Amino acid sequence: MIKSWLMRLFKRDSEKKLYEEIKLLKRDSEKKLYEEIKLLGEERVLLKPFLIAMALGIVFMLGIVWGRENWIGAASIALTIAASALATGAAVAFLFGIPRSRQREASKDGAPLSQTSEYEVNTNLEQVSDWLTKIILSIGLIQLTKIPTAFDSLATHLSQAFGQPAVHPGLVGSLLVYFGLVGFLFGYLWTRMHLAPVLSREERAVLQKPEFLEGMIHSFLYQPRGYERAIKLGEAFLRAVSDANYRVWLYLACAYGQQYSSLKEERAISTAQLEAVKKQALAACERTLYLNPSEYEALIALWDKGASPQEDDLVVFGEDKDFQDLFSKYGWKPKP
């Protein structure tokens, strides 16, 4: 009777957990669908005026070439000029609109970098964008008086491509300015609206990868009091990602060893607290060897005082009987 009651209770709890998981999954799916619909609506809002501007530009081009004997060839030339101006404007807008990395801004202002990442994002593209933007603005300001002459020369040169009858350079200049501005506005808006979310999403995906988290835990071991962050992140990794990753257990064993050494030097910690940290380090070593016995040599190198002069995270437990008993199961023997 008690057994059947426990079985029903367990089944009820399982069904309740399954229902909650399905409900949460459904909620996440609806949220993602809503975000996709919202993004699609923003794209349509951005696309509509661009298409209208492009249509007006095409009408303007046809007005330039209409009535010419070879109007198809002239239209091709006008289309090439317009496309070049459009692409140039979009490229310049891309340079102006590249989003900045928050890490770079924090380091520039002297503020501490985000604690969620120990590696800065490669910002070479941002730096190139800054340099080119400053160069363009500097040259433009220095050569401000020469820009109208140079632009008039370009328009005159391009107008000669239409042949006879000649097209007025002012019309070609208007074509360049119009499509250049359309390309710049569309390129800037697209960069601001789409590139920043894409970069943020990809960076979050990288930060959530187990390999990246493993690297962070390992890097913390080589920082002053980094063992605290290594323990915090390592324990969170085991709870949220997997508790069968022997490398994370190995890093945790090292972190606990560093913590034990630090607490022992403070001399204000009770024996019970030190014993608790030692048990955590011992358990981490046991779990590491259980998951991957080949890590025995690596643990011995960290534990044996004469094995590795550079890595000594577990040397503090070198005379501990519990550690000696553990490693003796895998072939360790005390030196005579």
Account of the 3D structure:
With about 325 residues, the protein is an all-alpha fold. The chain has helices at about 1-65, 70-95, 100-110, 125-140, 145-160, 170-205, 210-220, 225-240, 245-265, 270-290, 295-305, 320-330. It has two domains: about 60-110 and about 120-205, no CATH class; about 210-330, no CATH class. It contains twelve helices and no strands. Helix 2 crosses helix 6 (about 170-205) and helix 7 packs antiparallel against helix 8 (about 225-240).
Largest sheet: none
Number of strands: 0
Which regions have little confidence, pLDDT < 50, spanning 5+ residues? 103-122
- Rounded to the nearest angstrom, the radius of gyration is 33 Å
Query: How many H/I helical runs?
Result: 12
Q: In whole angstroms, how far apart are the ends?
A: 62 Å
Q: State the helicity in percent bands.
A: over 70%
Beta-strand share of residues: under 5%
